[in-house]
Each structure stands twice: as C-alpha cells, then as structure tokens.
C-alpha cells in the first residue's frame, strides 16, 4: 500500500517536472513584463527574467506555484505606494533579484516580498535595498529564506520597518542572510518551530533579532553587532540560542541579549563581547546558561529578582566591569562551575575546581542595581574598600548567590 | 615673585625626592603599558593611582618642603619683598615642580610606547587632572603649614583632609544616595561630585573612557551636563574655585601672620 503511494507520488512529480515550461521575460523577448509572464504561465513553470531594470506600476502578484529566477542582473524598482512581489500561492521560488526603493508607509505594510498564506516558498540570493519591509511573511509555513542581502535606510524607529518579519508563521528557515540598517533585523512574532542560523544582523536601529510570543525556535551561529539595543527575546518558551556572537551593542539602553518572560530555554556557547549589558534577564525561568563567554562587557549578566530557577554553569567571565548584578535579597538561580577572572581562591587538590566558593555579586554592583545614581562612584577608592569588606564578611549582597565550585581555568574557546 | 618662584622651582626639581616621584610614575606607567599593552586599560589603572596618590604625595611632600624652608622664608621676610611675592612664588614653585614630575612621569613612558597617543583625549585628561590635583593639594599644604606652627598638628590635618577628600567623602556621598533612594537625585549626585576635586577628576576621566554608557539614564543626565558648554564652564569654574579659595586663605594668612 505504502509502496504504491510512493510510486504514484514519483510519477506525479516526474510528470509535473516534465510538463514544466520555461518562460523568458525581457525587453527583447516575446513577453516584456513579469506580470504578463505570470498570467501566461501554468503552475510549476519557471520564469527566467532577463537582465535589465524593470519598473512596475503596481505590485506583482504571484498566485500560482512558480519559480522566478533572475537571469543576469535584474533590478526591479517598486511602484509608488506599493510593494514589489506578493506571493499568494504555495511552492513559489524567488531568487537572484535586486529589489529597490519600496517607500515607507504609515498605513500599509509595504514589502519588497510579501508572502501571504503560502507554504513551501523559497526566497534566496536576493539583494534588497532601501525598502520599508524587505521580506514580510504572514500566516505562512515551511518557507526557506536564505542568502539574501538586505540593506535598509532606516533613520527613525517610528518611520521604519523590519528587514525580515515573520508573523504567525511556522517551520520557517532563515539562514545566512545579511540584514542591516532596518528597525529590527529579523522579527519573529507568533512564529513557532523555526530556525534562524548563520545570519549577520548589524546596524539596526532597534534589535538585531526580536522574538515575541514565538515558541520552540532555534537560533544558532548568528552574529549580532552594533544594533541599537542588541537582541530581544520576549514572552517565548523553548527557545535554543546556540553559538551566536553578540558584539559591540554599546549604548545606554543596549543589551547583548534581553530576555523577558522566557521559559525552558537554553543559551549555550554564545560569545558576548563589549556590550553594555551581556544578558539582561527579567522574569526568566528554567533557562540554562551554559558554556557562554562574557568578555569586556559593562555588566556580563544582569539578573532581575523576578528571574528564578535558571542555571548558570560552565561560563567564562572575563574582564567585565560587573560580572553578575542582581537587585534581589535572595537569589533563586544556580551558579556552578563557571570561570571568573577575578576569583581569588586556590585549588590545592588540583582538580580544576577552586576550593573556596566565589561570590560573583560585589557590593557595588548590588548598590548600582538598586540606586542608579550611585554609579557615579564607579572606581572610587572608598567603593573598593567597601567591596573588599563585603567580600570578607557578606552582609548586604545575596548570601546564597555563590559559585561553590568555580573553575580555575576558562573552559570554552570561541573562534 | 618670579625670582622666588625660580629659586624654589630649581631647588625642588634638583631634589632627590622629586626625582624619586618622577621615577615612580615612569615605572608605574611604563610597567602598566608594558604588561597590559592596551593603553585604554592603562588609563583606568593609572586613574586609580592618580586620584589616590597624587593628592597624598602633593600634600605630604608640600608640607615637608614648606616646613623645611621656614627658616629661609623668615630671612626672606626681612628683605624688602612683599609677602605675597614670597609665598606666591613658593606655592607656584612647589606646584610647578610636582606637576612637571607627574606630567613627565606619565608622558615619557607613553612617548616611548606609542607617541601619537599623547594627543588622545583620555591621556590629556589624565595628565590635566594630575596637574590640577597637584596644584590644589600643594596650595592646601602650604596653607596648612602657614596656619599651624606645630608640625604634628599640620601633618595630622593634612592627612585628614586627604583622607576626607579621597576616601571618606565618597562614603558620605554613598550614604546620602542610599538615604534618598527613590528620589530624583541626579542633580544632587552631580553637585556632590562638583564639591570634591578628587571625585570630579574621577568622573571626568570615566566619561572620557566611554564608561558613560554603563550609567544608563543617569549617565544620560550626567553626560548632557558634561558634554555641554555650560557644563564644561561649571566644571572649569569649580576647579578654579578649588584653586582660588585655598589660595586666598593662604595669602590672607601670609599677610596677617605674625612671624
């Protein structure tokens, strides 16, 4: 029975492939406009757009499963007050185009490519410049968005939009894209079971990557740098954040990674370097922070009192102004076997674990979490004396925030 | 005054202890540059040395010197030279000699290590603050010497003033901030900083070092203050007051004192 089904499927696919026709679009071809070619084509045909510059009077609506390929340098300039491609069918491929100048709009979500209620689409190797939204997917599934190069011209948050925006999507893959100068680099809203990998997101006004109400997602090996406020993961659960680099998100309201109401997630093998705050965690629970490296940040890890049952282990804390800051009297997270560069203990039995527990929160970082203004005393001699006294006999800082087995050497090496 | 200044300056600059002071800074700064290799980090470490040690050494060394030259000053007083010129010249000579030591001690190693860095804002600021602190504490030292015949009492007061400004003040500052937790106290924090030359130097340097982003909203208020022209004028004015008021006390004491 099952075998028959496979055979039928193969025959079907083969016949579909055999019947697929290729259309050429271009000024020297029979069909001069892309929308005409789409109208003429049958499902599963390929449209090859010849090199040249195309200007549209309205958005091109793709309402049947087609493959659109740019054969040569194809640039498409958006019409006034309109997007460029609107994908309204399954199994559409758009590849290799240069899409330009989608205007900003305060009433419509204009996008270079808008995918609406579609599945199994592929958007690859497009170059998108100066567009309001670059790629905007709504209620879509199983999309593959890869190797696009997206540069916006965002100046102000309220009048700009996101490079890749997924809204109510499922099982999407966003890989190896380059997104810059938009409001958010990549924005996932109500988007589940998706993978974001190998992207470079930089110079965006707000967040490099932004999650809202999105569950069971994975993002790995991305680089987020020079974004207004870093990366924000909010109101989501079961998110895996692995091997990403969060670099140089430096500014008053900047974070490497902002966690708000995140549950049952893991943050593993990431590198946080030169951020004002490496990770800011508010209301996160059951999150495993493992094998991350925090280097040269203002605050490596800021745990608000509302964060509990998190596990911080095997991380490296190197050259941060403050390693851990918390405003809680009592801490409900576990800190174990991290490497702290300012650990002053010793290891007599040479098992690689310090024999004396380490207190990562010093008095001053606790004070600063409570009273912002006291940061003006940063590096004051009096504060150094206080910190020392508190270290010897803790009275104010959370007594149970202790790494019982601090590592003597850093663990994990990021390339 | 110029003659007294010249005499005092040359006397001090040839003194063994001034050379030791210079060597100390050359070694500290050179050692840090050599060990760390990152000039921004060296500025931070040097900042801690400068804001703690420069006031202390200026104070102690200044008092030692002024007590030492007392007899000579009395001979000078018998000559037809105004008191203002004598004491003005001495204070100028003392602060100039110490300033030269500190400035050279910081800049010589830097020149050998990475000469173009000398013109960078953070190093200039570090040098300027060392010089300002030297001048302020030299004047304070001279005034204390004039005001106290008893050396022990003089040194005691000098040490106390140093401890107060360099350490205890921040404690009082912190207690004030904690007591007023929850109130909008940026302005208060700012004015408390301006009242202490040591704190002012530290904060100015921190802003040069891009730590200001750590300060969040508060930092924005502070940076707005330090960044604007009126802010700079207020800081300049505060330093000027810290120089001119003790200098005024010193000159008044010199004028009225019965030797």
Report on the structure:
- The complex is a heterodimer of chains A (415) and B (259).
- Chain A is mainly beta and 415 residues long.
- Chain A has a domain at 23-153 and 163-185: Single-stranded right-handed beta-helix, Pectin lyase-like (Pectate Lyase C-like).
- Chain A contains four helices and 37 strands.
- Chain B has one domain (2-256).
- Helices cover 85% and strands 0% of the residues of chain B.
- Chain B is built from eleven helices and no strands.
- Classes of the chains: A mainly beta (415), B mainly alpha (259).
- How many β-strand stretches of chain B? 0
Terminal-residue CA separation of chain A: 51 Å
Strand content of chain B: under 5%
Cα-based radius of gyration of chain B, to the nearest Å: 19 Å
CATH top level of the domain at 23-153 and 163-185 in chain A? Mainly Beta
SSE arrangement of chain B, N to C: HHHHHHHHHHH
What is the total domain count of chain B?
1
For the structure shown, list the relevant keywords.
heterodimer; A: 415 residues; mainly beta; Pectate Lyase C-like; 25-stranded parallel sheet; 12-stranded parallel sheet; 4 helices; elongated; B: 259 residues; mainly alpha; 85% helix
List the helices and strands and how they pair.
The complex is a heterodimer of chains A (about 425) and B (about 260).
Chain A: H1 2-19, E1 22-25, H2 34-40, E2 46-55, E3 60-62, E4 67-77, E5 85-87, E6 93-95, E7 98-100, E8 111-116, E9 122-124, E10 127-129, E11 133-138, E12 144-146, E13 149-151, E14 164-167, E15 173-175, E16 178-180, E17 186-189, E18 195-197, E19 200-202, E20 209-212, E21 218-220, E22 223-225, E23 231-237, E24 240-242, E25 245-247, E26 257-263, E27 266-268, E28 271-273, E29 277-282, E30 288-290, E31 293-295, E32 299-303, E33 308-313, E34 316-318, E35 322-326, E36 332-336, E37 339-340, H3 363-370, H4 381-392
Parallel strand pairs in A: 1-2, 2-4, 3-5, 4-6, 4-7, 5-8, 6-9, 7-10, 8-11, 9-12, 10-13, 11-14, 12-15, 13-16, 14-17, 15-18, 16-19, 17-20, 18-21, 19-22, 20-23, 21-24, 22-25, 23-26, 24-27, 25-28, 26-29, 27-30, 28-31, 29-32, 30-33, 31-34, 32-35, 33-36, 34-37
Chain B: H1 2-13, H2 16-36, H3 39-68, H4 70-78, H5 83-114, H6 121-147, H7 151-179, H8 186-194, H9 197-208, H10 216-227, H11 229-256
Helix pairs in contact in B: 1-5, 2-3, 2-5, 3-5, 3-6, 3-7, 3-9, 5-6, 5-11, 6-7, 6-9, 6-11, 10-11
């Amino acid at each position: 029975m099952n075998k028959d089904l496979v055979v039928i499927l193969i025959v079907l696919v083969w016949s579909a492939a055999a019947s697929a026709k290729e259309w050429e679009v271009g000024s020297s071809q029979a069909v001069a406009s892309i929308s005409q070619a789409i109208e003429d084509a049958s499902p599963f045909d390929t449209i090859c757009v010849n090199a040249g510059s195309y200007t549209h009077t309205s958005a091109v609506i793709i309402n049947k499963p087609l493959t659109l390929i740019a054969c040569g340098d194809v640039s498409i300039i958006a019409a006034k007050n309109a997007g460029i491609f609107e994908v309204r069918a399954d199994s559409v491929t758009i590849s290799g185009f240069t899409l330009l100048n989608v205007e900003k709009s305060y009433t419509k979500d204009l996008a270079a490519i808008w995918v609406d209620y579609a599945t199994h689409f592929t958007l690859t190797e497009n170059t998108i410049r100066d567009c309001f939204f670059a790629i905007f997917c709504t209620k879509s599934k199983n999309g593959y968005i890869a190797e696009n190069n997206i540069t916006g011209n965002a100046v102000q948050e309220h009048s700009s939009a996101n490079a890749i925006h997924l809204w109510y999507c499922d099982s999407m893959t966003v890989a190896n894209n380059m997104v810059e100068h938009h409001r958010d680099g990549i924005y996932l809203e109500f988007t589940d079971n998706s993978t974001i990998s190998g992207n470079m997101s930089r110079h965006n006004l707000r967040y490099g990557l932004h999650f809202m109400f999105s569950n069971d997602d994975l993002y790995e090996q991305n680089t987020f740098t020079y974004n207004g406020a870093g990366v924000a993961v909010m109101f989501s659960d079961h998110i895996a954040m692995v091997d990403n680099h969060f670099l140089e998100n430096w500014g008053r309201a900047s974070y490497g990674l902002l966690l708000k109401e995140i549950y049952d997630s893991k943050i593993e093998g990431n590198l946080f370097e030169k951020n004002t705050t490496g990770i800011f965690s508010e209301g996160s629970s059951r999150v495993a922070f493992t094998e991350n490296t925090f280097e040269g940040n203002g605050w490596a890890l800021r745990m608000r009192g509302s964060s509990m049952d998190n596990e911080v282990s095997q991380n490296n804390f190197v050259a941060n102004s403050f390693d851990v800051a918390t405003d809680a009297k009592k801490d409900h997270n576990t800190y174990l076997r991290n490497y702290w560069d300012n650990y002053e203990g010793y290891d007599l039995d040479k098992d690689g674990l310090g024999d004396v527990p380490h207190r990562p929160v010093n008095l001053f970082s606790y004070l600063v979490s409570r009273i912002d203004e006291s940061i003006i005393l940063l590096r004051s001699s009096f504060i150094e004396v206080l910190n020392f006294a508190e270290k010897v006999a803790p009275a104010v800082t959370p007594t149970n925030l202790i790494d019982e087995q601090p590592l003597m050497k850093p663990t994990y090496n990021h390339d | 005054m110029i003659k007294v200044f010249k005499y005092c300056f040359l006397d001090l600059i040839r003194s063994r202890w001034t050379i030791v002071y210079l060597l100390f800074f050359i070694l500290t700064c050179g050692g840090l540059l050599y060990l760390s290799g990152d000039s921004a980090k060296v500025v931070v470490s040097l900042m801690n040395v400068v804001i703690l040690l420069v006031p202390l050494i200026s104070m102690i060394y200044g008092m030692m010197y002024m007590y030492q030259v007392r007899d000579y000053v009395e001979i000078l007083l018998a000559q037809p030279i105004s008191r203002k010129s004598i004491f003005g010249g001495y204070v100028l000579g003392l602060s100039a000699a110490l300033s030269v030591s500190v400035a050279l001690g910081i800049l010589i190693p830097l020149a050998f290590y990475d000469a173009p860095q000398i013109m960078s804002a953070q190093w200039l600021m570090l040098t300027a603050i060392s010089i300002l602190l030297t001048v302020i504490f030299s004047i304070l030292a001279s005034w204390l010497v004039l005001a106290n015949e008893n050396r022990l009492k003089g040194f005691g007061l000098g040490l106390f003033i140093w401890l107060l400004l360099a350490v205890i003040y921040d404690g009082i500052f912190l207690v004030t901030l904690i007591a007023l937790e929850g109130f909008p106290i940026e302005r208060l924090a700012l004015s408390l900083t301006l009242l202490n030359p040591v704190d002012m130097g530290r904060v100015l340097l921190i802003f040069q070092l891009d730590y200001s982003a750590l300060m969040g909203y508060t930092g924005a208020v502070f940076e707005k203050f330090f960044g604007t022209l009126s802010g700079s004028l207020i800081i300049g004015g505060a330093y000027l007051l810290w120089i001119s008021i003790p200098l005024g006390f010193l000159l008044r004491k010199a004028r009225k004192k019965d030797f």
